[in-house]
Amino acid sequence: xxxxxxxxxxxxxxxxxxxxxxxxxxxxxxxxxxxxxxxxxxxxxxxxxxxxxxxxxxxxxxxxxxxxxxxxxxxxxxxxxxxxxxxxxxxxxxxxxxxxxxxxxxxxxxxxxxxxxxxxxxxxxxxxxxxxxxxxxxxxxxxxxxxxxxxxxxxxxxxxxxxxxxxxxxxxxxxxxxxxxxxxxxxxxxxxxxxxxxxxxxxxxxxxxxxxxxxxxxxxxxxxxxxxxxxxxxxxxxxxxxxxxxxxxxxxxxxxxxxxxxxxxxxxxxxxxxxxxxxxxxxxxxxxxxxxxxxxxxxxxxxxxxxxxxxxxxxxxxxxxxxxxxxxxxxxxxxxxxxxxxxxxxxxxxxxxxxxxxxxxxxxxxxxxxxxxxxxxxxxxxxxxxxxxxxxxxxxxxxxxxxxxxxxxxxxxxxxxxxxxxxxxx
Amino acid sequence: xxxxxxxxxxxxxxxxxxxxxxxxxxxxxxxxxxxxxxxxxxxxxxxxxxxxxxxxxxxxxxxxxxxxxxxxxxxxxxxxxxxxxxxxxxxxxxxxxxxxxxxxxxxxxxxxxxxxxxxxxxxxxxxxxxxxxxxxxxxxxxxxxxxxxxxxxxxxxxxxxxxxxxxxxxxxxxxxxxxxxxxxxxxxxxxxxxxxxxxxxxxxxxxxxxxxxxxxxxxxxxxxxxxxxxxxxxxxxxxxxxxxxxxxxxxxxxxxxxxxxxxxxxxxxxxxxxxxxxxxxxxxxxxxxxxxxxxxxxxxxxxxxxxxxxxxxxxxxxxxxxxxxxxxxxxxxxxxxxxxxxxxxxxxxxxxxxxxxxxxxxxxxxxxxxxxxxxxxxxxxxxxxxxxxxxxxxxxxxxxxxxxxxxxxxxxxxxxxxxxxxxxxx
Lengths: 426, 426
Description:
Gamma-glutamyl phosphate reductase (chains A, B); 16 strands; Aldehyde Dehydrogenase, Chain A, domain 2; cytoplasm (chains A, B); about 425 residues; G-glutamylP_reductase_CS (chains A, B); 7-stranded parallel beta sheet; Aldehyde Dehydrogenase, Chain A, domain 1; 2 domains; alpha/beta; amino-acid biosynthesis (chains A, B); homodimer; NADP binding (chains A, B); globular
């Protein structure tokens, strides 16, 4: 497609989504929930056509020599379908965020001023590989009263097209405009460039994928972007701590799963407790094959741990998201030093303090500048489902609008409502 | 200054602001309020040195042949000083937004999840002419626990420098870091380019000034921008309406002041009520010298009004912010048509419906996609002070983060707090 044709195609998709977004904004809760339940039914009944589309993507990926884990991420097996269908039903069962009016206060002028939660309008979702994101994004769009424009990875294009048709049918079933969920059918990379430069088409872009993709989109976008960059999460073990709790939580934060963004990547330990705590956690890490990148002081305390893989940490380690069985470890002299280290080297994603000292807990909560701050809990809890959001469209490392897990609320905004009886300004 | 030197200067200012922002984030409410009261005292006692600095700017502006209203906007007379000093005391008397914890809920896992209001960090404020903005921005920064970097207009540089010294002294008086409020001392235009491309220095940019300035900043910024573009505000007079109320509110929305962004620029009238309403409001506008740019149907109804200045509206009129004694007028057949017109031609700033019909009021509130939506009240109420925000740093026409008047809350964000007792993810 020529660049002009591509630009026209994106503009056409944008106009259709924008028009549908007005209908979605005023759609009844009943219609939106019916669309979600219809989508769940249609997913479960999709059978052969969906499987065939998915098989095409998998065959192409295998022919292109994609690594096995990458191919696996494309697979829409029975279990994946069951999970996304259940997700649609869960979202249907949640309260509708749209239309909620809060904080109405009477002002001296006589007017009442409050806020109403409303959809953002149209969001653009740019994602890689996993085709189930197509359904997750569409279902959150439907419930939040938004339209959306989806752009999945080219390796999943046939699966995404098949899933998209189910979404459009489900919208139609419920009397809602099928145009509310758009999918960019061309796999031409330049389409993304047009989309992120079209404020008339999209109100916000949500990229999900590698850091390179997100940085490029943030750099080139002419519309707001809800970004998810690194998850360089810290666990800080304070001086006054329950050692058994610290051991259990630190272990979980690092080793329960290595690949999620909310897994711990760095362990800070107060000097006062380090001689007792470090050899114990070191033994746990050694047993699980977790490599420890240590400052000199922590290395000295870990030297006696049988089987420990100890490496001298470099400055770069403090800022690294490993997403692997590797953790950086450093002793600190004080809570102040821990907070300063996290604010300097962290990625403002999720950080936890393990402590029994109330003032330390409160200062950590207040002063660590991260989307999620935790006391005596595993960083692995930073997740839309665990937080009660029902589902998440992404995890934001931005400070404005939405921080941390972004659910239905993050896809809405608050406008001001003023209720008067003919008041005028004097 | 060479571009390299300028870049280094902005980086230095940014580092100082960033360091101070951490101290401001943990500053006590008492210290912040004391700084604000000290600033009020210092403003009232500023006397000759401030007057001399201001006189230099005014002399330079007059020598440069600036128009009289532009020169007037530079003037720091006794009344302006009294107003900004009082503003500081009002902000001191407001509740501290920082540290507030809300919505804490117990989750099935055992953790409690809530949200804490925290400062954004460092905001950059880019503004033109009026030097009092220096104090307004500094006082909102202090109370919200942020640091800020100010960049005023070159025509007010001496006044701004003098005011800035008072701010720094007031911060020092209260034991807070004077570096928390930075002012870019060079009037080199390229400094703005460096500032808005420095995410490490500023978390958000708030431009205040002409549309050209704001569009340029939004286009070139590499950090988030809280934008205030047009205020093309509508009054829609519904079919079922109290005519006396409609007359009073429409008059006030258009004529109480012509220059503010919340003044009405367009009047939509339901066809059923137009024959009774239009001649009456037309007579008011005629008496006040307000030019009416009409569609054919409204022009026909206004033709008999003595002294009415009637002009045929062009398509461009529906999207124009006049900021002058001019209003566009159009008849509509239905509420739907009114809402569609506003969403298409408006600027998503402030729009009002005048009606006695409850379903119309509710649909207007819900479906008009603007930062402020009003029922039976003048659009002129869209203002931080009238909404109870105490003061406003600007009015946002964005959808994300902050919509409409932005006060202390818009300078903060909500982070997630998780309170556990050793819970782990399973």
